[in-house]
From TrEMBL:
Family, as annotated: Belongs to the RecN family.
Protein name as annotated: DNA repair protein RecN
Purpose: May be involved in recombinational repair of damaged DNA.
Native species: Flavobacterium ponti
Domain RecF/RecN/SMC N-terminal: residue ranges: 2-509
Database matches in Pfam families: SMC_N (PF02463)
Gene: recN
InterPro entries: DNA_recomb/repair_RecN, P-loop_NTPase, RecF/RecN/SMC_N
Record's keyword terms, sorted: ATP-binding, DNA damage, DNA repair, Nucleotide-binding
Species lineage: Bacteria, Pseudomonadati, Bacteroidota, Flavobacteriia, Flavobacteriales
Length: 550
């Protein structure tokens, strides 16, 4: 339940703090006094979007803080799911900074608006005038039947399976589309893949072939120059080797004379060994150089295949061609496997559909039973509100279309008079009838909802006299099970509260400020008398007010 509300720098409110009690509380005040401001502030605590224009002083931040006693409402699991610290006495604070930035805290832990709204749904139901027409919405009608049927856990399972079902459908649609695309490309992809596979490409092969091709295409030139090297090196007496050996022999003779000559001798020895090795390798290479036109053609042909493939696929290396080959292989194989994947998804969809249909049937049957119970209960209450001939009927039609609540199409039919045909409630119920019907629904749901607090904002619109008194008695009875607030202009309802708060405006330092106070018994008499007769309170109005309060 809502224990207290603190508001600072919001609309016409400079600063106020008000404590609330259990049972049935009344809030009254002249039009424009600030009752809607209270609801607006409370709405911010429950996650409504902030508006910078609501700051009274644009230079100061706005603070709204609400304290809730929630020990009896089994909300620990909800707090865990929202990753919030639970406390039996939970504090929700909302701040709007002059910059326009908004911050929210639950038990001093920062939260976002979505989390605040989700938590707020379990704390307070603010029923404003325009929400009375919610009853004409099919989703609202489904929700109230599900509350009576206690369908929450079944619907959660249904929604979880529906999520799977839609995921399977989405995947199937994607795969079928992919199959169509791959089907158009399959023949070409297969051709490209087989062309690359036939080339038998290997990493590093291109470089090896290019080197070999260069040699094969220059055999005569290579032979000519290698022969010259060998000839110059091996000529007797004047050849390179003979001269180097002569130099080595001379240096060897003087090597022992000094370290410098010994070093020169060692260096010429090493050089001679290197030169001899170079000449021997040239001789070996000369033996291997063979003018082989067939090998030349084979190497050049393989290189041309590689160059053509690189040009076709717009790449410059064999590694890139091999990657393309792998990608093409995956597409070819995937196309071959796609039919089995489609079949598997179709089976998953059928299986999921069977589960959904079974769960939807359980939900439908529970709603049909709940509808009978609900109609008995609402008829009993609406009779007290001056509509003894009112009739209700839920038209529950199972369809083949899944929605987040099952497969049902629901329509609440209504007739206010005997002999009148039952019609959709949105077509035949007047404003005053809507108010009484909605109050009756809220009264019925008191037995099925674990909500701590409900606020009725002028639900008495369009009614008066004895009916207003009956509405007050119903709200008072509701307050035995939950905290009930009624914002009203009717003295019949105001007189039935356990406590009575008045919202009023004062002028202070040329500034208009809204205030709220808990009325004493005598102040209640005056307030209700004023509601009966206006500002000029008559003696009869005082007597009538006391009679209503008693």
């Amino acid at each position: 339940m809502l224990q207290s509300l603190y508001i600072k720098n919001y609309a016409l409110i400079e600063s106020l703090e008000i404590n609330f009690s259990t049972n049935f509380s009344i809030i009254t005040g002249e039009t424009g006094a600030g009752k809607s401001i209270l609801l607006g502030a409370l709405g911010l605590v429950l996650g409504n979007r902030a508006d910078l224009s609501t700051l009274k002083d644009k230079e100061q931040k706005c603070i709204i803080e609400a304290h809730f006693a929630i020990a009896n409402y089994n909300l620990k699991q909800l707090f865990e799911s929202l990753d919030l610290d639970y406390d039996d006495n939970t504090i929700i604070r909302r701040e709007i900074l002059p910059s326009g930035k908004s911050r929210a805290f639950v038990n001093d832990s920062p939260v976002n608006l979505q989390e605040l709204q989700e938590l707020g749904n379990y704390l307070i139901d603010i029923h404003s005038q325009f929400q009375t027409r919610n009853i004409i919405n099919e989703e609202y009608q489904i929700d109230l039947l599900d509350k009576v049927a206690n369908n929450e856990s079944t619907i959660q399972k249904f929604q979880s399976e529906l999520k799977n079902y839609k995921a399977f459908q989405s995947e199937l649609k994607k795969i079928v589309s992919e199959k169509e695309t791959l089907g158009k490309e399959q023949e070409y992809n297969l051709f490209l893949y087989e062309e690359l596979e036939k080339a038998k490409l290997k990493v590093g092969e291109q470089e090896e072939l290019e080197t070999e091709s260069e040699k094969l295409n220059n055999v005569e030139f290579l032979k000519e120059n290698i022969s010259k090297v060998i000839a110059i090196s091996n000529q007797e007496e004047i050849g390179l080797l003979a001269n180097l050996k002569e130099v080595k022999s001379s240096l060897q003779k003087i090597a022992s004379i000094s370290p410098e000559f010994n070093e020169l001798n060692e260096r010429i020895t090493v050089s001679l060994i290197e030169i001899e090795d170079i000449i021997a390798e040239n001789e070996s290479l000369a033996e291997k150089l063979i003018d082989d036109p067939s090998r030349t053609e084979l190497v050049n042909s393989k290189l041309q295949v590689i160059y053509d493939l690189q040009k076709k696929h717009q790449v410059s290396s064999i590694e890139e061609l091999l990657q393309i080959q792998e990608n093409l292989e995956q597409k070819v194989v995937k196309f071959d496997d796609i039919d089995s994947l489609i079949k598997r998804l179709e089976n998953q969809i059928l299986s999921s559909k069977e589960i959904l249909d079974k769960q939807a049937l359980i939900i439908t049957e529970a709603r049909q039973k709940a509808a009978k119970i609900f109609i008995v209960q609402i008829t009993e209450i609406i009779t007290q509100l001056g509509m003894p001939d009112a009739q209700f009927e839920f038209e529950i039609t199972p369809t083949e279309i899944y929605n987040k609540f099952g497969k049902d199409q629901i329509n609440l039919l209504f007739s206010a008079n005997k002999g009148s045909k039952l019609e959709p409630i949105k077509k035949v119920a007047s404003g005053g009838e809507m108010s009484r019907i909605m109050l009756s629904i809220k009264a019925v749901l008191t037995d099925y909802s674990k909500l701590p607090t409900i606020i009725f904002d002028e639900i008495d619109t369009g009614v008066s006299g004895e009916i207003a008194l009956k509405m007050a008695e119903i709200m008072k009875k509701m307050s035995d099970k939950m905290q009930v607030f009624a914002i009203t202009h009717l003295p019949q309802i105001a007189s039935k509260g356990n406590q009575h708060y008045k919202v009023f405006k004062i002028t202070q330092n040329n500034d208009t400020i809204s205030e709220i106070k808990l009325l004493t018994e005598q102040e209640r008499v005056v307030e209700i008398a004023e509601m009966l007769s206006g500002k000029n309170i008559s003696e009869s109005a005082i007597i009538h007010a006391k009679a209503l309060l008693n």
